[in-house]
Design goal:
With 148 residues, this protein is mostly beta strands. It is built from one helix and ten strands. It has one helix at 9-12, and strands at 17-22, 29-36, 52-61, 65-75, 84-90, 102-103, 106-107, 116-118, 123-132, 140-146. The strands form two sheets. The protein has a six-stranded antiparallel sheet with strand order 2-3-4-10-6-7, with no helix packed on it. Strands 1-5-9-8 form a four-stranded mixed sheet, with no helix packed on it. The radius of gyration is 16 Å and the shape is elongated. InterPro entries: Glyco_hydro_b.
Length: 148
C-alpha cells in the first residue's frame, strides 16, 4: 500500500481509502469501517444521533473467483468519505482476470500500472481512481471477478 505518513489528519482525510484483505482457505474475510467528520462531539453522548457512515465488508473466494461486498449499516448523508481506490488481497491462490472485474454488474476499468498479481507471494493489488463510492447514498456494492 502506498500511504503518505507525512501529512496532517485534515489533509489525510482527502486521500482515497485502501483496504487490506487476508484470505484463509475455505473461509470468508470480513471487516468494517467507521467514518465521521472527525471533529464532531457526540450529541448527548448518544452515538445514534452522531452523523457517520459505518460499512460492513466481506470477501469470499473460490476456485472460480472472488467477491468483495459492502453494506452501509449507518449512512449519514452529512458525512462525505473518500472513495475506496485500492484493494490489496494477501493469500489469494489464483491469478484474477483483471479484464473481467464488475462492480454491481457493470464492467470496471482498472489502472493496470497499479494492478497486479504475484503468484510467489499470492498477493493481488487492485487499483482504480474512484473505484468504489462509500457515500451514504450508495448503501451497498458488490465487486466480483473470475480467475484466469
Amino acid at each position: 500500500m502506498d500511504i503518505d505518513y507525512m501529512t496532517t489528519t485534515t489533509a489525510s482525510r482527502l486521500n482515497p481509502f485502501e483496504v487490506l484483505i487476508t484470505v484463509k482457505t475455505n473461509a470468508a474475510s470480513s471487516g468494517e469501517l467507521y467514518y465521521d467528520n472527525g471533529d464532531d462531539i457526540i450529541p448527548n453522548d448518544n452515538i445514534e444521533q452522531h452523523p457517520r457512515v459505518h460499512w460492513q465488508f466481506s470477501f469470499t473466494s473460490s476456485i472460480v473467483g472472488g467477491v468483495f461486498t459492502g453494506n452501509c449499516e449507518t449512512c449519514s448523508t452529512a458525512v462525505k468519505p473518500p472513495t475506496l481506490d485500492t484493494i490489496e488481497i494477501l493469500g489469494y491462490p489464483s491469478a484474477p482476470n483483471f479484464s473481467g472485474f464488475t462492480l454491481d454488474g457493470s464492467s470496471v476499468t482498472l489502472d493496470m500500472s497499479k494492478t497486479s498479481y504475484d503468484a510467489s507471494t499470492q498477493r493481488v493489488m487492485i487499483s482504480s481512481k474512484n473505484l468504489i463510492s462509500l457515500m451514504a447514498s450508495k448503501k451497498k456494492f458488490t465487486l466480483s471477478f473470475s480467475n484466469n
